[in-house]
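Re: Re: ligand-bound prediction request (bumping)

Still looking for help on this. To restate: I need the protein modeled with NDP bound, output as structure tokens. Inputs repeated here so nobody has to scroll up.
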Amino acid sequence: MRKRIAILGSTGSIGTQTLEVIAQNPEHFEVEVLTANNNIGLLIEQAKLFQPNVVVITNSCHYDQLKDALKDDPIKVYGGREAIQQVVQMDTIDLVVTAMVGYSGLIPTCNAIKAGKHIALANKETMVVAGEIINQLALEHKVNIYPVDSEHSAIFQCLVGEFNNEVEKIYLTASGGPFRGFSMEQLANVTKADALKHPNWDMGAKITIDSASLMNKGFEVIEAKWLFGLKPEQIDVIVHPQSIVHSIVQFRDGSMKAQMGLPDMKLPIQYALNFPERLPSSFKRFSFLDYPKLTFEQPNTKNFRNLALAFEALNQGGNMPCILNAANEVVVQAFLNDKISFLQMPEIIEQTMGKATYIKKPALEDYIQSDKEVRILTAAMVKNLAKQKI
Ligand code: NDP
Ligand code: MG
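Reply:
Sorry for the wait, this slipped through. Here it is.
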């Protein structure tokens, strides 16, 4: 039986690479659902090629065009945000790949879990915002969550076969991004174009900015807490500019296991799709001759304040990671729109964390309200700063 896959965000970096993995393994996987937000051209192309049962375009403006383009194909076409929330529950889906960006992934992921669908989780923001609720739902509905994020896939791979062996700590590796080693003076002048040039990974715009600001690593710390049931003090971040060691687990006897390989997201995607069996692949192999040195250094949390803010949010718990995420989504968008500078991003996030309503034990509805409140609060701060700039 082929595994029937729904890809939420099929036109993005993770979505397209998931389709590459599926195309290379047609005897194992088939595409059941594809969704996109705006990129109608690519969605049509993917639908024609993979012939899913259903496609969804979130931005309803494009619905008529999509419907018309697929009128001769046996494919159901839906539009709007609610459509994604419904199609993830279809009986014919075995696994949902959550490759949408940001908070938009939260409700579809909750619905998919409630319908008993296993999840290949790329959309880390869902775990950042509501990890506790996602875990509870997964437990209740007997759903497995397979990490796609390369660091978490690495930890997951290191844990296979360790059964109840206690983890002492984990080291999440970070490339350090394009601004590794930069002084505050240098960071004050970096541009959007500089931030969008990641040294090792080719990803969507939002996560590329998060990687440059180290917020991505902060999110991954929170994601790791929920995926692996760790305390904040058991999670460490180490900068490894070559991105070959994808992360490390240290067990209670002091032994450390690492997972390594060239940086290629297709590997963790394929592992998540077909766990526990490893499929053959033609991905480029690592050569020690190309990497005479693998280096490791401490992250600079003074200059890259976001990482410290993420640890703070994690330690405070409650809805603080949700506040962190919503503030970050607003400032990243403002930075991409040239409204604020690189260093103003952590500044505004920190202020928001101080101002937004803190809830110690939030329910799903509280997260939804909190996300709304923070977006308004942060947008107002961005507006004020932008005014001062003029
Ligand atoms: P991209 O920006 O490349 O793709 C995002 C996808 O989601 C696109 O298909 C986009 O559609 C769709 N989308 C965007 N906004 C919405 C919305 N509001 N509602 C519905 N769909 C939406 O992102 P990435 O693939 O880089 O990242 C996806 C997720 O995976 C993120 O959470 C990221 O943190 C995580 N991740 C990514 C990695 C990577 O290597 N790229 C590595 C590890 C994790 P459209 O194209 O139409 O705009
Ligand atoms: Mg990662």
